[in-house]
Amino acid sequence: MKFLKNVWYVAALPDQVGRELLGRKIAGVHVLLYRTQAGEAVAIADTCPHRFAPLNKGSLIGDNVECLYHGLQFSPAGRCVRNPQADLISPNMHIGRYPVVERHGLVWLWPGDERLADPAKIPDLSHIENSPTRRTVHSFIEAPYRHDILIDNLMDLTHIDFLHVGSFSGGPPESGETVVEERDNQVIVTRTQYRGAPPPRDADMGPLVDRRFHIRWFPSQVTAFEGRMVLPGGSLDQGRKTVFTHIATPADAKNTNYFMSFTREHAVEDRDLDAIISATQKKVIATEDGPMLEAIDRRMNGADLMELRPVVLPGDTGALRVRRVVKRLLQEEERHQAASEVRSA
Ligand code: FES
Ligand SMILES: [Fe+2]
């Protein structure tokens, strides 16, 4: 499986990166994240160039990482700065480093061509940043399934009225429609559904509601959601609002770094509520989407979705558009890569 490389991926939550070494796989690349003594989050390659030991097994000496196996040391810029066996440090002893930016309460990493790593390309998630009137709870799971089927799942919310009955849904609506737009390599899905039972937590609204989900996908494999719910026939713009974000950073062809968050504008200081929200999110993923996605992943056995010639339903439009954008961006990256190789030859 090929991954987009010239994008900012969410690599970690800020409190996952500290003075302990964190090894993580991002788009097929082993990276090592940590904070310098000054508190700056940095990332270098997680593989020692000597005998390929994972550097995350090593330790921090000041701002440098010492390999546990034979003691080579590397700076936050990936430079080998100490060779305990000789004074010599040759060019092939240096390792890669990756641009890192903390923004919107998340740690972003660029695994591709560093010259293109413009922080202005980070998806705008300012609407989930914590403030005195807003609180976002983040959760993380190492998901044992490939990221593209998770994105399919997130872009096609018709599944909530079957897979999530009793949690996110009260059952299928009488009717629904999906509208898909593409803008600046983003795919925006608006899913509206009419006269369905509300999910249990919104049972106070009555037996039937209209719902609308607005989903914005970014090539960083970020999906930002806004949900609205009203009594049938009411104005959805004025409806009860929920804001949540799901991020499917690919680890490799079989695993995903799955970040999910829920944003609220009430009880902002309530840390007990934070814990309840996080536990609920993880439970629904672990008991509803997770087992389904693992089973699908096993059944697909690494095959490309389109090569399996799937049946296409109206709700798939957004997910299929995402696949088209990713394919186009992968081709652009290949052209950029080929041009760079010609220039440096
Ligand atoms: S494997 Fe790292 S120093 Fe030998
Ligand atoms: Fe789901």
Helix-strand pattern, N to C? EEEEEEEEEEEEHHEEEEEEHH
**Alpha-carbon distance between the termini?**
27 Å
> How many beta-strand runs?
18
Helix content: 10-25%
- Mean pLDDT over the full residue set: 96
Class from secondary-structure proportions: alpha+beta
The strand order across the widest sheet is 12-18-17-16-15-14-13
Biggest sheet architecture: 7 strands, antiparallel
The CATH architecture name of the largest domain reads: Alpha-Beta Complex
Brief overview, please?
The protein is an alpha+beta fold.
Description:
The protein is of the alpha+beta class and 345 residues long. It folds into 2 domains: 113 residues, Rieske Iron-sulfur Protein, CATH 2.102.10.10; 205 residues, Alpha-Beta Complex (Naphthalene 1,2-dioxygenase Alpha Subunit, Chain A, domain 1). 21% of the residues lie in helices and 32% in strands. The strands form 4 sheets. The protein has a 7-stranded antiparallel β-sheet with strand order 12-18-17-16-15-14-13. The chain has a 4-stranded antiparallel β-sheet with strand order 2-3-4-9, with no helix packed on it. The chain has a 4-stranded antiparallel β-sheet with strand order 5-6-7-8, with no helix packed on it. A hairpin with a 2-residue loop joins strand 5 and strand 6. The longest helix is centred in the last third of the chain and has 30 residues. It is globular and about 75 Å long. The relative contact order is 0.14. The structure holds FE2/S2 (inorganic) cluster (FES) and fe (ii) ion. The site of FE2/S2 (inorganic) cluster has 9 residues, from loops. FE2/S2 (inorganic) cluster binds next to loops.
